[in-house]
Amino acid sequence: MIDGRLDDLYIDAPDDGRPQPGAIYRAKMLRPIKGLHGATVDLGDGQTGFLREARGLAPGDSFLVQINSHSEDGKAPPVTRRLLFKSRHVIVTPDAPGINIARRIRDDDRRDTLLELVHDVLGDAGLPDGAGVILRSVCDAAPEDQIAEDLADTAALAANVLADAEGDAPELLVAAPEAELRAWQDWVDPAPDSVERDDAPFERLGIWDALAALQSPRADLPGQGWMAVEPTSALVAVDVNSGGDFSPAATLKANLAAAAELPRQLRLRGLGGQVVVDFAPLGKKDRKQVEQALRRALKSDPVETSLIGWTPMGHLELQRKRERQPLSELWPR
């Protein structure tokens, strides 16, 4: 919750047997998919995944993969061989060498201290050559002993998993993080004012009401404007309305508010894939201003999103990673 408003949401979904994003498997190559340079892979227990880049692999090969995003019903989840071992302070990258420090950490002395800390810890970690580390922005103010402990634990986990890549059978090696762990890892910047673990805050802060409001396609905007966010089987359709005031100033105000609000609405609703936005009547001269508002909002959004551009009919298209399961699927369960 930020300034009394729900800003992000993680839910532990009932187990439906589908592989979850972040989970790491020892997989086995099944068959290539001609024309896509990809392949289906066996994840064990009757589960399969889709590997987009499979050059150099042959049927029967064993290797490690990580679930990249949620799968749609009836489709295999996308997987990647570029593993990320993520914790609160660090990300260990087995396939990306080097030590990278978050840009927000600008003090040169602090950066030098963190570099020295990483070298000291990694010397005993047992990671293979070519592995790297990313120090997250929370390291700027975190105690060094906490960073070192977190890095040592994460590096040890990565080393153990990498050593298990050549096993015989496909197998789940690292489960996807549960909601509370994801929150502890991700919601660190800015640092929370408080963390509460009982039901009372949900009533007191109006969280249940905010969740209930997300069951409706309608999202109100400042002033009279509103937008409808409706997922279909092919895409997410967003319709922006000025609320009855059709003056150029009112429609531009509604469109700018919608652009600023859209990432939060998609995030809370767990929506991804192709997103098509039909703004209120918008002249071409105002498109750049709306685009800039949307890009600013996307900068603080944790879900990878690409702004594709305008269609001949004046709609704006986005491509958003399916990182989360739609709230419309989770809520009834």
TrEMBL record:
<keyword id="KW-0378">Hydrolase</keyword>
<dbReference type="Pfam" id="PF10150">
    <property type="entry name" value="RNase_E_G"/>
</dbReference>
<dbReference type="GO" id="GO:0006364">
    <property type="term" value="P:rRNA processing"/>
</dbReference>
<protein>
    <submittedName>
        <fullName>Ribonuclease G</fullName>
    </submittedName>
</protein>
<keyword id="KW-0694">RNA-binding</keyword>
<dbReference type="GO" id="GO:0004519">
    <property type="term" value="F:endonuclease activity"/>
</dbReference>
<dbReference type="GO" id="GO:0046872">
    <property type="term" value="F:metal ion binding"/>
</dbReference>
<keyword id="KW-0255">Endonuclease</keyword>
<dbReference type="GO" id="GO:0003723">
    <property type="term" value="F:RNA binding"/>
</dbReference>
<dbReference type="GO" id="GO:0016787">
    <property type="term" value="F:hydrolase activity"/>
</dbReference>
<keyword id="KW-0540">Nuclease</keyword>
<dbReference type="InterPro" id="IPR019307">
    <property type="entry name" value="RNA-bd_AU-1/RNase_E/G"/>
</dbReference>
<keyword id="KW-0460">Magnesium</keyword>
<dbReference type="InterPro" id="IPR004659">
    <property type="entry name" value="RNase_E/G"/>
</dbReference>
<feature type="domain" description="RNA-binding protein AU-1/Ribonuclease E/G">
    <location>
        <begin position="197"/>
        <end position="322"/>
    </location>
</feature>
<dbReference type="GO" id="GO:0005737">
    <property type="term" value="C:cytoplasm"/>
</dbReference>
<keyword id="KW-0479">Metal-binding</keyword>
<dbReference type="GO" id="GO:0004540">
    <property type="term" value="F:RNA nuclease activity"/>
</dbReference>
